[in-house]
């Protein structure tokens, strides 16, 4: 059973950079045609897809965040990471890492981490 | 304003059937992209409930079913149980936005 776990600081100052890591267990991050994804959810609001990467370092980012986001992967540690710079209070959210498909030619987010609350405040 | 529109809330009594709609457009659901549904219990991460429009992952009760027609999709829950009380989100791909999008979420209340 694949498990994902986010880690990183819970409080970051405005204008600084958020750094989160997702550790994958129960399987190799390099096996299969999966994409490793970051999704966030501000309190009481909907989910927002941030971006994804595969182990060939192919990345796609949400156009609304593209200028501030970097997602990377470390296959030796079975981890992938998120960096989001120039933070404002609007970036305060629970950040989830997730695995994306494929399942029978569709690409759902089938495994999720438990989420990491990041608050942007001075 | 979400790209995929869901009703903010639905409710039903135990044992009843409820449906949650997800309305998109020609750049997402109407373009043929798959719709997936997630259940989010309070304080927990979303859980995949329906994938590829109509398919249930193993472990999901057959009380949950998905359908799609035109630019809309629906999630049906039959035989409502107290444990079904949660937020439900639809999700698809949008070619205009070049990314994956979620609905605004629907809170299901079991009366």
Structural class of chain B: mainly beta
- The helix tally of chain A amounts to 0
The average pLDDT of chain B is: 96
Largest sheet of chain B: 6 strands, mixed
Helical content of chain B stands at under 10%
> What is the alpha-carbon Rg of chain A in Å?
14 Å
Radius of gyration of chain B from CA coordinates: 13 Å
Element pattern of chain B in H and E: EEEEEEEEE
Compressed to H and E, one letter per element, the order of chain A equals: EEEEEEEEEEE
The residue ranges of chain A in which pLDDT falls below 50 over 5 or more consecutive positions are: none
Proportion in β-strands of chain B: 35-45%
Q: What fraction, in percent, of the residue positions of chain A are helical?
A: under 10%
- Number of helical regions of chain B: 0
- Approximate strand percentage of chain A: over 45%
Description of the molecule:
The complex is a heterodimer of chains A (122) and B (111). In chain A, the strands form 2 sheets. In chain A, strands 2, 4, 5, 6, 9, 10 and 11 form a 7-stranded mixed beta sheet that branches. Chain A is mostly beta strands and 122 residues long. The radius of gyration of chain A is 14 Å and the shape is globular. In chain A, 0% of the residues lie in helices and 49% in strands. With 111 residues, chain B is mostly beta strands. In chain B, 0% of the residues lie in helices and 44% in strands. The radius of gyration of chain B is 13 Å and the shape is globular. The chains are: A mainly beta (122), B mainly beta (111).
């Amino acid at each position: 059973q694949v498990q994902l776990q986010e880690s990183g600081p819970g409080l970051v100052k405005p204008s600084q950079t958020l750094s989160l890591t997702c550790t994958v267990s129960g399987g190799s991050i390099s096996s299969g045609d999966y994409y490793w994804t970051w999704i966030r959810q501000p309190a009481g609001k909907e989910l927002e897809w941030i971006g994804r990467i595969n182990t060939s370092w192919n990345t796609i980012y949400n156009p609304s965040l593209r200028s501030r986001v970097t997602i990377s992967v470390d296959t030796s540690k079975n981890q992938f990471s998120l960096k989001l710079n120039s933070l404002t209070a609007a970036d305060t959210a629970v950040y989830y890492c997730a695995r994306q498909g494929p399942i029978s030619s569709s690409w759902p987010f089938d495994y999720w981490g438990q989420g990491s609350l990041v608050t942007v405040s001075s | 304003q979400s790209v995929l529109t869901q009703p903010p809330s639905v409710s039903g009594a135990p044992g009843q059937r409820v449906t949650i709609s997800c309305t998109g457009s020609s750049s997402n659901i109407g373009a043929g992209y798959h719709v997936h549904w997630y259940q989010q219990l309070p304080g927990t991460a979303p859980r995949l409930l329906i994938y590829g429009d109509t398919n249930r992952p193993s472990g999901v009760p057959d009380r949950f079913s998905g359908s799609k027609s035109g630019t809309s999709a629906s999630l049906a829950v039959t035989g409502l149980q107290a444990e079904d009380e949660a937020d439900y989100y639809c999700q698809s791909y949008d070619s205009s936005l070049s990314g994956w999008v979620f609905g605004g979420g629907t809170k299901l209340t079991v009366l």
